[in-house]
Amino acid sequence: MPHALIVDDDRDTREALAAIIAEDGLTTATAGDLRDARIQLVRQMPDVVFTDLKLPDGTGVDLFEDLDPRSGVEFVVITGHATVESAVSALKMGAADYLVKPINMQRVKSILARLPRAGDLKAEIGTLRGELRRMGRFGLMLGNSGVMQQVYDQISRVAPTAASVMLVGESGTGKEVAAQTLHQLSLRRKHAFLAVNCGAISPNLIESEMFGHERGAFTGADRQHKGYFERANGGTLFLDEITEMPIELQVKLLRVLETGMFMRVGTTKEIETDVRLIAATNRDPEQAVLEGKLRLDLYHRLNVFPIGLPPLRERGKDVELLAQSFLNELNEQHGTTKRFPPAVLEMMLSNAWPGNVRELKNYVQRAYIMSGPDSDSTATVPLQISLTSGKLRARIDIPFGTSLDEADRRLILATLEHCGGVKTRAAEVLGISLKTLYNRLVDYREAEAEESDEGDGRTTGVE
Fold first, then answer.
1. Helix 342-350 crosses helix 318-334 at what angle (to 10 degrees)?
2. Of 139, 220, 242, 276, which one is least surrounded by beta carbons within 10 A?
């Protein structure tokens, strides 16, 4: 059944409109201000919106701008005699019609009679989205395997709501792309989408980056800085590697989620924010809670709607679909028409892709580069570069009695060597963030430098 939303700060107007619209066979919802109207939009997307131009906390035009023009929602503005010009301006923006107060209810009926029922248009849009899904496209995501269709179903259900989402999946499975798709399909699509890698920010700066700081809050704070929560107001904030966020900051994050208020570093003045949170991790979040990496209360607050992203090895022929998409992008960028030889396609389909979609994309780019400018096919290059050499080993031996710090150091350095010095790959193999790996390497270098200085001192003393 078609649904109408009526937005007006005058109660009598709302009730009169609701009665006449209900007679025409539509269900109705009402709101007295912009805030309540946005809540109603989240609860149920209407087919028709009737809104006063002047509202206590904004204008009807603000509400109109919240709606995706592709949604098929019809928009009718209500205005007083003195603001007919504003109503005409709204028509130019795309509103279907306008009503002048006092409202002529017969005119309301005539508008309803000639308005195309947006339900029909939404059905057409739904059909179009269904076709795109069958072709393997859903927002920014790509893949038509059964497991991905399940992910699409989950995203389509939760995207229009205000619920927090927890994305769980191995590194390289496309968690940020999934978060961007959630944002694009939400009512916040016209506002900012900001992505934050919690493991890539120094622990000393992460609070300032998240909440901002005032000038003079600490050494080097020579100007006021707006943090992610302030810049993402009205939009979506994506917190990747949430388990890498310091525990003490998780407490403050929980407070923001519960109250919608935060304070910049260096001030006691609270700032209100309206942000939808999407969190992601490549760990088992429940295990992270047991290990003390993630607060239990924060986990429950973020895990309102969990979505698991499948690894590429479970997605069947999505490998070929993704690889072709990456190759098409390269062909478009460089004006070429290269294709995959059958042997390369077969090799890609049989590989496990431990680095998932990210690894596949890197492989396609490598095969494209190695093919040469005159070839119409990509090169047949190894799926992985061999790291085996005389001095590389597949295992390390740690004698009994070795301290945990020393064992940790040996394992990290040996893994980095085995990965050819590629820190991102070494971090993935070790199951730690890239930031953690960098910090450990800095510590090892500083320790070596201290040992070297002490050695020089002893030598000088002997001489």
1. 130
2. 220
Look up the domain containing 186 and give its range.
135-308
Q: What pLDDT was estimated at residue 238?
A: 96
147 and 286 fall within a common domain:
yes
Residue type, 102: P
Q: d(Cα 69, Cα 86) in Å, to the nearest integer? A: 20
| DSSP collapsed to 3 states, the chain | CCEEEEECCCHHHHHHHHHHHHHCCCEEEEECCHHHHHHHHHHCCCCEEEEECEECCEEHHHHHHHCCHHHCCEEEEEECHHHHHHHHHHHHHCCCEEEECCCCHHHHHHHHHHCCCHHHHHHHHHHHHHHHHHCCEECCEECCCHHHHHHHHHHHHHCCCCCCEEEECCCCCCHHHHHHHHHHCCCCCCCCEEEEECCCCCCCCHHHHHHCECCCCCCCCCCCECCHHHHCCCCEEEEECHHHCCHHHHHHHHHHHHHCEEECECCCCEEECCCEEEEEECCCHHHHHHCCCCCHHHHHHHCCEEEECCCHHHCCCHHHHHHHHHHHHHHHHHCCCCECCHHHHHHHHHCCCCCHHHHHHHHHHHHHHHCCCCCCECCCCCCCCCCCCCCCCCCCCCCCCCCHHHHHHHHHHHHHHHCCCCHHHHHHHHCCCHHHHHHHHHHHHHHHHHHHHHHHHHHHHHC
Confidence of residue 358 (pLDDT cuts 50, 70, 90): very high
Query: Does the pTM of the predicted model rise above 0.70?
Result: no
The answer to whether the beta carbons of residues 154 and 161 sit under 8 Å apart is no
d(CA 200, CA 427): 12
Overall number of domains in the chain: 4
pLDDT band at 84 (very low <50, low <70, confident <90, very high): low
Same-domain pairing of 107 and 29: yes
Q: What is the CATH number of the domain that holds 182?
A: 3.40.50.300
C-alpha distances (whole Å) from 65 to each of 75, 134, 149, 189, 294 are 11, 31, 31, 10, 38
For the chain, give the number of residues: 463
**302 in Cβ contact with 253 (< 8 Å):** no
Domain assignment present for residue 396? The answer is: no
